[in-house]
Please model this.
Amino acid sequence: MVIIMNPDATVENIEGVVKAIEGVGLIAKIMEGSQQKIVGVIGDKTRVGSLAIEAMGGVEKTVAISKSYKLASREFHPANTVVDVDGVKIGNGNFVAMAGPCAVESREQIIEIAKYVKAGGAQFLRGGAYKPRTSPYSFQGLEEEGLKYLAEAREVTGLKVVTEVTEVEAVDTVAHYADILQIGARNAQNFRLLKEVGRTNKPVMLKRGLCGTIDEWLNAAEYIMNEGNPNVILCERGIRSYETYTRNTLDMSAVCAIKHLSHLPVIVDPSHGTGKWRMIKPMCFAAVAAGADGIIIETHYNPAKALSDGPQSLTPEHYAEVMNGLYKISDFMKVENLLTDYTKD
Ligand code: PEP
Ligand code: MN
Model:
């Protein structure tokens, strides 16, 4: 439930409402709406029944939240969330690019790639150190050694680091080195892991599950937020469909659905979404036009020799070409005012 305050509600009015909510053992969160303050209520809503909230001073109306997720919903939090990653903002018009290899393979590899990723204009370096591989015989990642190389690449380039954490036991270690914790598609409903990253103070990039519905994805975000971590970035990476030509079916309409249903930033991963490097450029451009808050792409200086996901990795030259067009389109969308404003109903 949310309580919409009158535009002229006083500080005392708001305090009165918060006190009443807390008095029945519920949590109250004060948020800024477009014109007025909103008090979000978390917990068993039957307890509010006794309070006659709408009769309290400064209250305009109460609105029930229709979704099973609340903190992640736009009903609960109308304004777009901006996730601040140590000074780099994501969301509400702050467009970002994340790029790097699928996996950290060596110190030399990640530093070399980080340098051209930075030169191309991305703000984040991606690279898996813990790799969730379909086959147990495939390269499994360098684990902590890989995290150290990522941290070194950050020192050299100034890029922020986004990297995956695959198990509860590794959360502290990954959080020690990373700027954003990535939850991969295969762990999108690993609720223990979601809760564990929710207890850290690191932003989390939550990928959509392999066959995840939008509702399941937002409920997964809710698990993280409900532990006290509001800094969730959603990532559309394609879903399994009957199509086999592409690795997954990249659901660009999910960007619009998420923007409508949630205030959280959403970025697009055309590398895993298509599995084909040739499709990355057009799909990145489409993501910007759809209103995504960023993209994450794989690149390798020698895709043919990459230990994982070479076929969906851009060469340095193609990476530069994508980045060049991406910012032009992003600027164009803003200047021409072509993006949809989802904060207005
Ligand atoms: C990745 O980003 O390296 C990855 C494994 O992606 P996903 O979880 O989307 O398959
Ligand atoms: Mn990959």
